[in-house]
């Protein structure tokens, strides 16, 4: 019977595997078990037994050797005797005849000789054996010696082991004792620390007593001063009384003189009266005859009248005299009394002063003696304890060092042994693995050889049998031949099939090995790339370190040369007046150092504005506390001051930017400088006039200083057509500052910066203009106009220019020369660009929802939540899909709460807070939760409380804040607290279990869990912060820099305070312009104003970037999404260059987009933003009309590899095997062309949507539609961790869409089947397929489309 046809499965060719067992083999279980299980004492017993057996064997050998030597002696004797007899017999044969008996003897002797010969040979053998035995004996002796030596070694080792055990026990005892000592030492140290703390407390008490005594001293001194003042006042009163006394004496003398005059007058009047009487009598006598009665009566009347008058006058004068004398006497008495009282008071005061002085001296002496005694005692105690502790520490440290050294040695030995064991195990495993693989491969090859040999033998046997059958059955029937032939053909086919299957298996094995090798190579390449990147980073870090070292050295050298002024940049010094230098009338005030220059005729005085200057005693030096100001002070008396116009620092020549408190000024000499430059200012006050004006220029290393300044004109906001307005331009700190000046001759520039252009910008350039550039300008002005160009000035285009009109052509050439020269120096010195944000348009501005957007939030890297007048919408920026959430109108604010899977919004006319679940963002119909108590709320904020135990939602309503705990109940919220605020809530946030609330001129922190009183972040006792409460300013935001420091941002200034509300930094953050709002994204603070966004680093307090976008409003708290309110309202995304990866994928946008918002037919909440079909057809027609565009659409074949010729029906099966119905999740992953998604790493490029030109007409039109790419990223590829995706160089995507969720199958498919006919048949496809592998064989059969599920075409 012939063998069966399927011999490959019979098992006859398989090798048999046997197992052997040997007792003495190392690999056997018994010996291993004996070696592992037997204790070391058993090994010693075995060795002793072996030595005993060897000693017995040697004794037996010695006995045998002695016996053999005796036999040898006997044999040698017998030999000699036999030889003698033989010789005698020979001699006798010569002499006489031989008898028969002798013959017999001879025979016997011969036999004996033979026997003896045999014995001799045996003895030789025995001698050899003896020699061998002697050598063995020597070896045994050596072995016994070695055994003895080993035994000695074993004994010594045992002793050492015992010693080591003893040492170990001792060391453990020592360790325990040392641990106890350590504990004792720690307890002693604690006691010492307690004593030290007690002493500190006593010291503090003494200090407090000293301070109290000092205060009492001050109080007494003040009382002394008051008493002295009283004494001086009394002295002054004494002087006044003396003056009055003198005046009164003078008056008394005058009165006495008047009285003497009156007396004389009286005497004269009496004499006159007597004369008159005599005359009257004479007249009487004469007129006796003519009417004597009438005349006499008249005369009598006149006489009586005159007498009455005389009496009245005399009485009056006497009364006056008496009155004045009484008054004089009274005044003299009172003055004498006052003098006595004053003298008595003075004496009493002098006595009190003496007593107080004695008491003061006594108290001083007593306190000083007590303090000195206490200090000496404390010092002695401290030194004693210190010496004791240091000694104990030294002892303990020495012992610890010894123990640690021992422990390190033991641990090192253990580690080495473990590492050796691991290495050996790894090597064994790897060797066993490779041996197993090699044996398998060899087995496969041998099996194949055996199978081939067996088949050949079978075939030859069959042919022989057939030949024999042919020869034997010549007379057989003709019908048997076809059956035999068929049987032979079947056998031949079965053999071929078996060979083919064996070959296929071998090829598969080789392919698998090749795949593994390729994977290993790829991993090696990736590790090499990573190594190279890390080396590059290390080199960059080293260069940064060197640069920083250089900077520190430069800083040290500058500190050493503090007194010297900053020189101009590379001998590039310019005059302070860009206009006429001869005009002496217009000059800067030497103290103010204003940036306004002499281009105008009127002089500008900056410091003569006392109404707005705010003096606070924060910067005053030692001379302020003295009683009377010195005439020539040696140090400056600096006071923080607010300037009304742009002012330069006299020390560093930079502008003092800010709205208030820009710098400090010396009250004596008027030297003005930054707060930080006050320490570097010249120590002499007043400063010599030659030092007040330093040379202008910028330090190229630091970039600090003013290079040039002057008055220019800039276009009005409406454009050049409406005219030009005056402005002050200053080139300072490698920036161009522009300050607006109001109309009018006497008007001055305000401190608010209207525009800032940074010269560090890559696109910065300065150039003249042509008449075509400024159409509406006057022809005479064109030669005086120049243009400053920079990037980031507009969202629609990367560049934008500012036109500046100088006073003349010379002025223009000066400005252009200065700016170009400074830009060249800046490039030469390679000052680092410190910009953080790159503004990009987040979505197409033609979307109607953007125009009325009130707030926004970034949900993930592809979705934005927009709240506007219509409601809440979710925009998928890459899919161009829009989902409406809820039915509410006018969303004012959005707050994402991912920890609770909620989104909180303020919506509706009544401004209620509503809570939506995150599932609603996908368009699902879900319930929302309305907070009824929150009607008319202003803002909301959420945060974690109790280290993330629960989430708190705070709602601000005028002067009230409602706090809710978010939970998993039906309503999802629970009210926990109601907080009343001092003023209207202007800002709030949650800082580490506390709610920080900002109101006018203040910030308060309220506890969110538990009861507790709020505390202010502006301490009332800190007088340096009193200016905030004096001038009411709005609270914009607060920043928690650390647990111990906060930054409080007000509308006028930013202040750093500690956790108690006291000032932590002397320097303040200065705003270039009036801020409207602030956003914080650690560690950068974005301050929004009307014309720009200024970025500050809150840690270093540096103004690092200005984004000159006008009318920008932030839409979220981080400031990443903003609304630009120009002619076309745009949604702007600020990309952070310092962050790892992008928070949002920014698509390509255009202003000429014809997209429209279309509602989905099936779902009323879903919209799509796309170009209508008619517009698309029109675009196609326009493209097809252009032959150049048509040629560009069809690309040449790339990566074309000829594999095999296909017959007319070979490709039908492949087409049949293609999947007809796509799964829904795969239909979303459709690409219409090859797409390159850059890897998201630290240094990755912007993830845009780039398309190849070969993607065809449909791809072209769909690219304009904005919906060409439909990307589905794997689960967490763009989430919180931002795992890096494969770059296009790795061949991650090929033509046709690939599902990103299945990375490994696509890569395998692309690697294995890159040379398949499917890739080569389409000649006009520009795919990114990898070149064919040199190991992979050319397949002539039909291609298996295992990964065809991942391929789909856009419908």
From TrEMBL:
Keywords: Cell projection, Coiled coil, Cytoplasm, Kinase, Metal-binding, Phosphoprotein, Serine/threonine-protein kinase, Transferase, Zinc
Ranges of Basic and acidic residues composition bias in the record: 1305-1318
Pfam family, one: PH_MRCK
Residue intervals of the Phorbol-ester/DAG-type domain: 635-685
Gene Ontology CC terms, in alphabetical order: actomyosin; cytoplasm; lamellipodium
Domain CNH: 850-1122
Name of the protein this chain belongs to: CDC42 binding protein kinase alpha
Residue ranges with Low complexity bias: 1248-1263, 1287-1303, 1319-1330
Location(s) in or outside the cell: Cell projection, Lamellipodium; Cytoplasm
GO molecular function, one term: metal ion binding
Coiled coil start-end: 58-286, 325-437, 531-558
Domain PH: 705-824
InterPro entries: C1-like_sf, CNH_dom, CRIB_dom, KELK, MRCK/ROCK_PH, Myotonic_dystrophy_kinase_coil, PH-like_dom_sf, PH_domain
Stretch list, region Disordered: 573-615, 1227-1355
tRNA processing in keyword set: no
Reactions catalysed, as given in the entry: L-threonyl-[protein] + ATP = O-phospho-L-threonyl-[protein] + ADP + H(+); L-seryl-[protein] + ATP = O-phospho-L-seryl-[protein] + ADP + H(+)
Cofactor(s) required for function per UniProt: Mg(2+)
Compositional bias per record (Polar residues), positions renumbered to this chain: 1227-1242
GO BP terms, alphabetized: actomyosin structure organization
Domain CRIB: 1194-1207
């Amino acid at each position: 019977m012939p063998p069966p046809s399927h011999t490959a499965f019979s098992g006859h060719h398989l090798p048999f595997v046997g197992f052997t067992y040997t007792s003495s083999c190392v690999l056997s279980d018994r010996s291993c078990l004996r070696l592992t299980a037997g204790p070391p004492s058993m090994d010693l017993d075995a060795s002793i037994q072996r030595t005993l057996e060897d000693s017995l064997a040697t004794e037996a050998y010695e006995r045998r050797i002695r016996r053999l030597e005796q036999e040898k002696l006997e044999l040698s004797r017998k030999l000699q005797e036999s030889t003698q007899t033989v010789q005698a017999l020979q001699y006798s044969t010569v002499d006489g005849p031989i008898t028969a008996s002798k013959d017999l003897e001879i025979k016997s002797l011969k036999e004996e000789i033979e026997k003896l010969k045999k014995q001799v040979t045996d003895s030789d053998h025995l001698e050899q054996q003896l020699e061998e035995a002697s050598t063995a004996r020597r070896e045994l002796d050596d072995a016994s010696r070695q055994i003895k030596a080993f035994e000695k070694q074993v004994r010594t080792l045992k002793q050492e082991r015992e010693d080591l055990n003893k040492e170990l026990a001792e060391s453990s005892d020592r360790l325990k004792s040392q641990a106890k000592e350590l504990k004792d030492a720690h307890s002693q140290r604690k006691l010492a620390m307690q004593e030290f703390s007690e002493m500190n407390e006593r010291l503090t008490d003494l200090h407090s007593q000293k301070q109290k005594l000092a205060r009492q001293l001050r109080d007494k001194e003040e009382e002394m001063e008051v008493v002295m003042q009283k004494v001086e006042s009394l002295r002054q009163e004494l002087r006044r009384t003396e003056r009055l006394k003198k005046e009164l004496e003078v008056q008394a003398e005058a009165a006495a003189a008047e009285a003497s005059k009156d007396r004389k007058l009286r005497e004269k009047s009496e004499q006159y009266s007597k004369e008159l009487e005599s005359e009257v009598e004479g007249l009487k006598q004469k007129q006796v005859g003519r009417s004597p009665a009438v005349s006499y009566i008249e005369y009598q009347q006149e006489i009586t009248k005159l007498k009455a008058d005389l009496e009245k006058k005399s009485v009056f004068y006497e009364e006056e005299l008496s009155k004045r004398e009484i008054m004089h006497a009274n005044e003299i008495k009172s003055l004498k009394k006052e003098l006595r009282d004053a003298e008595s008071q003075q004496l009493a005061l002098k006595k009190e002063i003496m007593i107080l002085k004695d008491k003061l001296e006594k108290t001083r002496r007593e306190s000083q003696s007590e303090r000195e005694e206490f200090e000496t005692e404390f010092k002695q105690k401290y030194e004693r304890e210190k010496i004791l502790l240091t000694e104990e520490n030294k002892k303990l440290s020495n012992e610890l060092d010894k123990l640690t050294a021992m422990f390190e040695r033991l641990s090192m030995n253990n580690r080495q042994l473990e590492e050796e064991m691991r290495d050996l195990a790894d090597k064994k495993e790897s060797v066993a693995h490779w041996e197993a693989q090699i044996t398998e491969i060899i087995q496969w090859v041998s099996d194949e050889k055996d199978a081939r040999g067996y088949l050949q033998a079978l075939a030859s046997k069959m042919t022989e049998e057939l030949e024999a059958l042919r020869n034997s059955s010549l007379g057989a029937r003709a019908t048997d031949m076809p059956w035999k032939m068929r049987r032979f053909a079947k056998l031949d086919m079965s053999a071929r099939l078996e060979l083919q299957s064996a070959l296929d298996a071998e090829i598969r094995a080789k392919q698998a090995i090749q795949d593994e090798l390729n994977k290993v190579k790829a991993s090696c390449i990736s590790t090499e790339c990573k190594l190279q990147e890390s080396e590059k980073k290390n080199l960059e870090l080293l260069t940064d370190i060197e640069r920083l070292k250089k900077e520190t050295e430069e800083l040290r050298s500058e500190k050493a040369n503090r007194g010297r002024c900053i020189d101009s940049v590379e001998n590039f010094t310019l005059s302070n007046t860009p206009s006429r230098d001869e005009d002496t009338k217009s000059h800067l005030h030497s103290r103010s150092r204003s940036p306004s220059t002499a281009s105008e005729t009127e002089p500008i005085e900056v410091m003569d504005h006392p109404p707005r200057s705010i003096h606070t005693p924060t910067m005053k030096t030692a001379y302020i506390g003295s009683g009377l100001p010195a005439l020539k002070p040696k140090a400056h008396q600096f006071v923080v001051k607010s300037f009304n116009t742009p002012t330069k620092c006299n020390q560093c020549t930079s502008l003092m930017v800010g709205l208030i408190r820009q710098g400090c000024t010396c009250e004596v000499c008027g030297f003005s400088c930054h707060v930080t430059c006050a320490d570097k200012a010249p120590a002499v006050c007043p400063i010599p006039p030659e030092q007040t004006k330093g040379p202008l220029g910028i330090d190229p290393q630091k970039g600090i200083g003013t290079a040039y300044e002057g008055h220019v004109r800039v276009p009005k906001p409406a454009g050049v057509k409406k005219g030009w307005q005056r402005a002050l331009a200053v080139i300072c700190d490698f920036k161009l500052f522009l300050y607006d000046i109001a109309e009018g001759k006497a008007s001055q520039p305000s401190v608010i910066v209207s525009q800032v252009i940074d010269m560090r910008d890559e696109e910065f350039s300065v150039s003249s203009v042509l008449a075509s550039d400024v159409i509406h300008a006057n022809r005479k002005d064109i030669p005086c106009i120049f243009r400053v160009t920079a990037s980031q000035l507009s969202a629609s285009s990367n560049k934008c220019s500012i036109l500046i009109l100088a006073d003349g052509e010379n002025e223009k050439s000066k400005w252009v020369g200065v700016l170009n020269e400074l830009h060249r120096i800046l490039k030469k010195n390679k000052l680092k660009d410190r910009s953080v944000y790159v503004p990009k348009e987040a979505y197409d501005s033609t979307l109607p929802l953007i125009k009325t957007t009130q707030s926004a939030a970034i949900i993930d890297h592809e979705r934005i939540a927009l709240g506007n007048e219509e409601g809440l919408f979710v925009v998928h920026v890459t899919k161009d899909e829009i989902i409406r959430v809820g039915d509410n109108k006018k969303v004012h604010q959005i707050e994402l709460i991912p920890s609770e899977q909620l989104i909180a919004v303020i919506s509706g006319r009544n401004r209620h807070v509503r809570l939506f679940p995150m599932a609603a963002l996908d368009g699902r119909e879900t319930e929302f939760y309305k907070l009824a108590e929150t009607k008319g709320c202003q803002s909301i904020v959420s945060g974690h409380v109790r280290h993330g135990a629960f989430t708190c939602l705070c709602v601000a309503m005028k002067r009230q804040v409602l706090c809710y705990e978010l939970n998993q109940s039906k309503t999802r919220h629970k009210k926990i607290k109601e907080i009343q605020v001092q003023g209207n809530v202007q800002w709030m946030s949650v800082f580490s279990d506390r709610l920080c609330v900002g109101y006018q001129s203040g910030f308060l922190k309220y506890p969110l869990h538990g009861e507790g009183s709020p505390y202010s972040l502006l301490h009332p006792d800190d007088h340096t912060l009193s200016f905030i409460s004096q001038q009411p300013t709005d609270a914009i935001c607060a920043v928690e820099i650390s647990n111990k420091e906060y930054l409080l941002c007000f509308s006028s200034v930013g202040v750093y305070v500690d956790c108690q509300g006291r000032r932590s930094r002397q320097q303040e953050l200065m705003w270039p312009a009036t801020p409207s709002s602030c956003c914080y994204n650690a560690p950068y603070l974005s301050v929004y104003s009307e014309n720009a966004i200024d970025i500050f680093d809150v840690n270093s307090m540096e103004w690092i970037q200005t984004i000159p976008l006008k009318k920008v409003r932030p839409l979220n708290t981080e400031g990443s999404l903003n609304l630009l309110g120009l002619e076309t309202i745009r949604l702007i995304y600020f990309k952070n260059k310092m962050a790892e990866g992008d928070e949002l994928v920014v698509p390509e946008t255009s202003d000429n987009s014809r997209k429209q918002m279309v509602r989905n037919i099936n779902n009323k909440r879903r919209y799509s933003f796309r170009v209508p079909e008619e517009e698309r057809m029109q675009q196609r027609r326009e493209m097809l009309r252009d032959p150049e565009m048509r040629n560009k659409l069809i690309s040449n074949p790339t990566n074309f590899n000829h594999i095999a010729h296909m017959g007319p029906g070979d490709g039908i099966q492949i087409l049949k095997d293609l999947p007809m119905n796509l799964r829904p999740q795969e239909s979303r992953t459709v690409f219409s062309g090859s797409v390159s998604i850059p890897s998201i790493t630290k240094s990755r490029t912007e993830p845009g949507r780039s398309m190849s030109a070969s993607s065809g007409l449909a791809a072209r039109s769909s690219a304009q539609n904005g919906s060409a790419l439909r990307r589905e990223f794997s689960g967490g590829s763009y989430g919180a961790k931002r795992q890096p995706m494969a770059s296009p160089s790795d061949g991650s995507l090929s033509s046709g869409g690939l599902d990103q969720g299945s990375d490994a199958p696509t890569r395998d498919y692309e690697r294995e089947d890159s040379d398949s006919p499917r890739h080569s048949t389409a000649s006009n496809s520009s795919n990114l397929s990898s070149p064919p592998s040199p190991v992979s064989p050319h397949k002539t059969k039909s291609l298996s489309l295992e990964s065809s599920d991942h391929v789909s075409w856009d419908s």
